[in-house]
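User: Here's a structure from my thesis project, written as structure tokens. My advisor, Dr. K., wants to see whether a designed sequence matches the one we expressed. Can you design one independently, without my sequence as a hint?
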């Protein structure tokens, strides 16, 4: 299972985007831990784990997916997160 890396720009303050990210992960019975600087998360996708970490730099969230199902492309994960965090 390979990983991916992408950046999601956001408007507003980091606490708002983190609240959205946490809600999206936890709504899928996932785990989200972190603050306005960095953190990590884990969620099950079709009975497979997706693990990642994030860091905040200015008004951008840098996301590193460390482990994901091989059949889920990075572009799908990035698109889903952009939609949830916008």
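Assistant: Designed independently from the structure alone:
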């Amino acid at each position: 299972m390979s990983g991916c890396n992408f950046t999601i720009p956001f408007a507003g303050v980091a606490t708002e985007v983190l609240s959205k990210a946490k809600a999206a992960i936890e709504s899928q019975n996932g785990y989200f831990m972190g603050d306005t600087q960095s953190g990590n998360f884990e969620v099950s996708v079709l009975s497979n784990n997706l693990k990642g970490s994030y860091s905040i730099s200015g008004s951008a969230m840098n996301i590193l997916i460390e482990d994901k199902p091989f059949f889920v492309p990075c572009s799908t994960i990035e698109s889903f997160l952009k939609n949830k965090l916008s």
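When you compare it with your expressed construct, this may help: Residues 1 and 69 are 6 Å apart (CA to CA).
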